Amino acid sequence: MAAQIIAVGIFVLMFVMIMLDKVERCIITLGAGAATLLLVFGLCMRSPEAIWTTLNLKSIFTLEFWYHTGLNADTSTGINWETIIFISGMMIMVEGMARVGFFRWLCMAIAKLVRFQPVPVLIAFMLISGILSMFIDSITVILFLAAVTVELAQVLKFDPVPIIMAEVFCANLGGSATMCGDPPNIIIGTSLGYTFGDFLTNTGLIALVSMVFALGYFYLSFHRELNGGEGKGSLISASRGKNNFVSGTEAARAMDQGRGNRPNFVISDKRGFYISAAIFLLAVVLLITHAQTGLTVAAIGVIVGILSLIAGGRHAIEIMKKVDVHTLLFFVGLFIVVGGLEQTGILEAIAGFIGRISGGNPKMMVAIIIWISGIASAFVDNIPFAATMIPVIRTLAETTGVDLSVLAWSLAMGTDIGGSATPIGASANVVGTSVAVKHGYKVTWGRYCRHMAPASIAVLLLSTLLVWVRYF
């Protein structure tokens, strides 16, 4: 009983401190993880076995960690090293792509293709955001997309905030479509043994339908503003606040006058550019086929990471320095704390509670998971929430007989989509709004939530209905 109380206390304190955002997240989770190992497993449980099970180091040295058939789920608890190693490799690949100008080239090429007209740019950048976020961390996608959007806005004299908000929503939505799109999905996939194809044919279909809705929703919400209509977000001069419409032809001419704004001129290393693009395509192929090849996502992460460092040549150390080690440490501490909840039986009790209030009704269970996940993720980090819920849904499936995969897809959609509703709900939101504010474009909570909350609620409702229709 004491172990359970302390484990819950550590978890709640960790969550509160993450929400307050006064101390760096990795320090919070590592401190909470250390407290779990010492107080819960050491002092209360006196169980070295629980410590070693949670640290889970032995899994790295097994063949199954690097190569398997994909038929059996990974039921190990504690630190999910497969997730951490995969994210590390993808971070290295993304930094290598960024160094040679891949993302700026892509954004500028698409913008030029639609002749720099704001409404077509809105649609094009939403699609880019959604597609790239299926394979690349949404933070990186938004960082580059938002920067290019602001650059276009300063030349064409329009407010970039509507486009940035739409990009953020589509990044979170696109990330829900695949196993490597958002961190919660990586954790769900590696913990429960699901493949890239499993996600693509399940959450991917829901995301596709939702993307069609999102394109229509944001077009109706912003097309008048971006076309120079009257209102708060109309095409304006950033310095004088006057209506200052720029036609597509004039825009294209204005952008082409600056050589640095032409797509080819943002490539800093052409040879490196082509190699990085090839490595990215290889990563996509390996992820799509990893159920057939037997390579785990950890192995894929190591492969693309090593190839990216080799391609970087003398820039390899520079690329390594840019890897977000703090995020990786955040995951390590988080997994230990969640392991404490699992080892003490807290998560099993939560699963039992959800089973009771749903009355064993699978549809009700799905609705509870989607909406609790969505609402919670709008205000707290969806990564620890997803990590906490995985053992819960596993226990629910074992005790109620509901298909585990259906609960997994519900959890993925809830955590990924709910985070779009508020400016702090997901890391991509924070990055996108920060880029806008940095360049003098204010993004208030009221303005953000007025457009993003209804879209999030609508997609959560759509997800619930689609899961019900398809699986029950």
Task: Give structural attributes.
mainly alpha; 22 helices; globular; 472 residues
Task: Describe the SSE topology.
Blueprint: H1 2-20, H2 25-44, H3 48-55, H4 63-66, H5 81-99, H6 102-113, H7 118-132, H8 138-156, H9 161-175, H10 183-192, H11 196-226, H12 248-257, H13 270-293, H14 297-312, H15 316-321, H16 325-343, H17 346-357, H18 362-377, H19 382-400, H20 404-418, H21 427-438, H22 445-471
Question: What report would you give on this structure?
Answer:
The protein is mainly α. The protein is 74% helix and 0% strand. It has 22 helices and no strands. It has helices at 2-20, 25-44, 48-55, 63-66, 81-99, 102-113, 118-132, 138-156, 161-175, 183-192, 196-226, 248-257, 270-293, 297-312, 316-321, 325-343, 346-357, 362-377, 382-400, 404-418, 427-438, 445-471. Helix 17 packs across helix 19 (382-400) and helix 18 (362-377) packs parallel to helix 20 (404-418). Residues 70-74 and 229-249 have low confidence and may be disordered.
